[in-house]
Amino acid sequence: MQRLKALATTLAVVTLGGLVTVATPGVAMAEDAMCRTATGSADFYPGPSASTTYDSTFHNGVAVPAALYSGRWVPQGLAYWNNWNGTTEDVLLISAYDDDDGNKVPDGHSAVFGVVLSGDRRGASLGRMLIAQTHAGGVAIAGGHVYVGGEGVVRYWSAATVRSKLAAADTSTPVAPKGTQDVAGKASFLGSHGGTIWTGDFSSTSHQSMWQYRPTSTGSLSYTGAKRWVPSKTQGVAVVGDRFVFATSEGRDNRGNVWVRPTSYTSDITDGTSFCMRAPSMIEGVAYGSSNGNAHVWAVYESGAYTYRDSLNPIRNIHWANGSTLAGLYGQAD
After folding, report:
1. pLDDT > 80? residue 3
2. What share of residues in the chain are helix, strand, coil (percent, to 5)?
3. What is the pLDDT of residues 281-329, one digit of tens each?
4. Cβ 108 vs Cβ 74: under 8 Å
5. Spatial separation of the C-alpha atoms in residues 257 and 282, rounded to whole Å
6. Are the CB atoms for 144 and 187 separated by under 8 Å?
7. For residue 174, what pLDDT is reported?
8. How far apart are CA 308 and CA 312, in angstroms?
9. Best CA proximity match to 92, nearest among 302, 227, 287, 319
10. Burial 324-334 (b: 16+ CB within 10 A, else e)
C-alpha cells in the first residue's frame, strides 16, 4: 500500500543582532488517509466489513440499553466504572442526547445510561440519569465524580449521586450537576487515565488538541499542563498503558477509524507516529478497563440510533477488543 508521508517543513532561522528566532512550522496535515482498508466478511455486526483488522481485533459485546434507542436517544460518550456499587459488578456509562425528530440536534434533556458488564446481571440495563441539554459528547469517571462534556463545558456529579439515580426508576426530572467548569476547547469528547481526565476538540477537517485535567477533592478540574494532538474527526479516546486509542468518524455513509499512538508523543499525527485501521461507520466513545479479569477496550456507536437508521453499519451493541492486542498494533505497517 502506498503510504502517505509528512512533507518536511523547513525552519527559518534568522540572526538579528545576536538574537536567533525560529519560525514555527504550520500544523502538519499528514494524517494517514488510507489506514488498513482490506475488507473481509463482517460476521458480528450489520452492514459491510470495515476492515479485516477491525473484524479480527474487535468482538460483539453487551447491547446498548433498549430504552436508549426506543426513546430516540443518540449515544455519544462511553466510560468504564469498576465496582460501581460496592460489589464485583462493573458497568459502562453511556452519555446521550435526545433527538426525537431525528435532525441531529438535541431536543430536550440529555442523559447518562448504564449497562452491566459483569456478574449475574451482565447485559442488564440500568436506569438513566437525566441532565441538562447538551450534545453530551463525552463521559468520564475520576476522583469519585462523573463528568459529561459538551459545548466547552464539563458538568460533574458525585459518583454517589449517579449511582443512586442509575439504580432507581427513571424519572422525568433532570439532576443538577454538583458543578460546571469551562475547559480548553469544546469538550467534544472525554477520556480518563490514571485519575485524570482528557478533554478535547472535534474537527471535520484538521487535527485538533486535547488537554489533561486532574480532579480536585471537590470535583473541580485543574489543568496539568499536558496537551496532545488528536486526529481529525476524533469522537473518543481511551488510554491503554502508554498508548492512546482514538475513535474517529463522521457521516452515516462513511467508515470510521481506530488509531493507536504512544502517549508520550507531542508531535503531530502522521503516518509514522501512529497506527490506523478502518472501523464501522459512526464509532463514538471508547473506554478501557479490566472486568472479570479481562482488560478490554470498549466502543459504542451512534449508528444504531433512530437518527441514523439508514447508516452503513447500524450497530446496537458495544464492541470490545483485548487491550494489549489493540495497543500492540502500534508499530505495525498500516
Report:
1. no
2. 10, 45, 45
3. 999 999 999 998 899 999 999 999 999 999 999 999 999 999 999 999 9
4. no
5. 9
6. no
7. 97
8. 9
9. 287
10. eebbebbeeeb
